[in-house]
Automatic annotation (TrEMBL):
<keyword id="KW-0732">Signal</keyword>
<dbReference type="InterPro" id="IPR004564">
    <property type="entry name" value="OM_lipoprot_carrier_LolA-like"/>
</dbReference>
<feature type="signal peptide">
    <location>
        <begin position="1"/>
        <end position="22"/>
    </location>
</feature>
<protein>
    <submittedName>
        <fullName>Outer membrane lipoprotein-sorting protein</fullName>
    </submittedName>
</protein>
<keyword id="KW-0449">Lipoprotein</keyword>
<dbReference type="InterPro" id="IPR029046">
    <property type="entry name" value="LolA/LolB/LppX"/>
</dbReference>
<dbReference type="Pfam" id="PF03548">
    <property type="entry name" value="LolA"/>
</dbReference>
Length: 213
């Protein structure tokens, strides 16, 4: 469980460490993604549930989690593991091992949010509109992203509820055919959140091993 969040967060880093290269983005995809991005950024805060599936072949595993964000901070919970980014430090809390790790995140560790998926299309990817598809009775627009330089990924596919301007699913396939999928549901926006939601309270973890890197 200790490293469970690492592959989950890796899913959201779509080539951020690579230098810019020539790319093609079709106008329909750009229009859809820009509208969705503006929609998210206009909200005070966002909440959603998500399913996370990863692996290959018969070795797929699925879990569910919840996510809160106010665009500058976030809280993520999945399988007894919690991660808090308070805008400055990153807190990884593992209930199973009773451990807390505190660190100053690098750029690749603070991007777990729908905005990271949407902003990343502007860098290092050829982006193509792939048509419409019905998912759970909902018509969605499908957008395919293919890296212009080798970054370990074959492709990334975004599924967008365009009328609501929301990302509802992301699929990522690596060059080794590992699959990672995040399905997003139960959106809530502009809620009245506790002022302490994105704060780490050390007094609650007196029996935990706390390590600050």
């Amino acid at each position: 469980m200790k490293n469970y969040l690492r592959p989950l967060l890796t899913l959201t880093i779509l080539g951020a460490s690579f230098a810019a290269h020539s790319q093609t983005i079709d106008s329909k995809s750009q229009k859809i993604l820009d509208e969705v991005t503006r929609n998210y950024k206009s909200k005070k805060n966002s909440y959603f549930k998500f399913s996370y599936t990863s692996g290959s072949g018969k070795n797929l595993r699925s879990q569910t989690g919840i996510f809160y964000s106010d665009n500058t901070r976030y809280k993520l919970k999945i399988m007894g593991t919690e991660q808090i980014f308070d805008g400055n430090k990153l807190y990884n809390i593992n209930d199973e091992d009773k451990e807390v790790t505190i660190s100053k995140p690098n750029d690749e560790q603070i991007h777990f949010s729908p905005l990271s998926y949407l902003d990343s299309y502007k860098k290092e990817y050829d982006v193509t509109y792939s048509g419409k598809k019905t998912m759970s009775g909902i018509p969605v627009d499908v957008i395919k992203m293919v890296p212009v330089k080798n970054n370990g990924l074959k492709n990334v596919t975004l599924y967008v509820n365009t009328p609501q301007k929301k990302l509802i699913k992301l699929e990522q396939i690596t060059t080794s055919n590992e699959v990672a999928v995040i399905g997003i549901s139960d959106y809530k926006e502009n809620q009245k959140l506790s002022p302490n939601l994105f704060t780490f309270d050390k007094s609650k973890y007196q029996n935990y091993l706390i390590t600050e890197l």
